[in-house]
Amino acid sequence: MKLKITILFVLSVLMISCSSEEDSKSKQFTFLDFEKDVLLPSPNSQSIIFYSFDFDENLGKWELKLTDSENNDVPVVLTSAAKTNFAYNEGKNYVQKVIISAALKIEGVYTLVIKNKTTNQIYTDRFLVNSDVFDQLKTETWESYNVSPDITPTTVYDYYYFHNLKNTIGSEIKTNGIVGIDLEDKKTLQKYSLDFSINTYTKKVEFIIPTGVPAGIYFVSVRYNTLTSAYFVKDIVVQKEKKPAILSINKNTFKGGETMVLKGSDFRYKMDLNLFSATEFRQFELLTSLVFQDKNGTGEIYLSTYKMDPTFTYMNAEATEINFPIPKNTGETDWFYSNLNEKIYFEGTVSVKTGSFVSEAIPIRIDYK
């Protein structure tokens, strides 16, 4: 009997030990993004969705706290957490979709605090609740960095936004009574009021973010003379203007088969990675291209950001030099840098484009024969 009790005691200790070891396996999770950063108010419970890496799918290990703009506690429930089929880092980091539920009854700023009870990791973020929203905000740079794997016709894209580029509200919003466009810093809630215009042809609202607005993460809203505002459903990341500059070219007249060497600065836009999450797993890049233009038109050759592509080697890591091997003969695929019919020479200009920023054009001539 004593032996039996001893064995049971040892088994109990082992079970407790294994259980404790299992409990301690929670990783540090990475919050990626809310599906929507601005939600509509509702007296009933609604889903609040965000995406993450390494979020422990044992829901009992999490403690949530949600407060509204009046600092009232809002009941919140962690509904589900599951991996999607979308992964980064060569399939090592799967994006997870996490759903929490709460009744968002009043408008304003809500603060969500997420705590892992095993690791004591705490993450805090904000989202807005507003009764008027819009879901299309276009910019000149049509490149996005969405983390959501749920790409559908109604997906709201996370575009890159920059100083001194035109932005257009594509949604059908009320344009009568607009008094300004507001950018509200997500961390400090400081507001910046911007000028706007209404395109006479499209009737869409357009605005430019000036350099006086610091780079950062912002809520965007249209402010009306009725003291109400319509908010874009996503926050936006605003970054500085950086135009590429060609400081020198090895020569201006080339033969087919020679190498054109451009030296300068900012040939590839370097993102402020402090404004993004999971930068060690995800790539944040703008397309860079050489732009050839003559009287017949314009064409671009893209310089890849991926090491496996041949054009990746054309630019150095500092983005200050491009070595472009000019083809010996032109063909159908590179018609845009040869004369239209005979395809025996090109006479025009070359410039460097990264995103929507373009350098000054340099005159060149290429003789293929």
Account of the 3D structure:
The protein is mainly beta and 369 residues long. The chain has one helix spanning 2-23, and strands spanning 30-34, 38-39, 45-53, 62-67, 76-88, 93-103, 108-116, 122-129, 133-134, 137-139, 160-162, 166-169, 178-185, 191-194, 197-198, 205-208, 216-224, 229-232, 236-239, 245-249, 253-255, 259-265, 288-294, 297-303, 321-325, 345-354, 357-358, 362-367. The chain has three domains: 30-129, Immunoglobulins (Immunoglobulin-like), CATH 2.60.40; 133-239, Sandwich (Immunoglobulin-like), CATH 2.60.40; 245-367, Immunoglobulin-like, CATH 2.60.40. The radius of gyration is 27 Å and the shape is globular. The model is unreliable at 1-23 (pLDDT under 50).
Q: Briefly, what is this?
A:
It is built from 1 helix and 28 strands. It is mostly beta strands and 369 residues long.
Task: Give short descriptive properties of this protein.
369 residues, mainly beta, Immunoglobulin-like, 3 domains, 1 helix, 6% helix, 44% strand, disordered N terminus
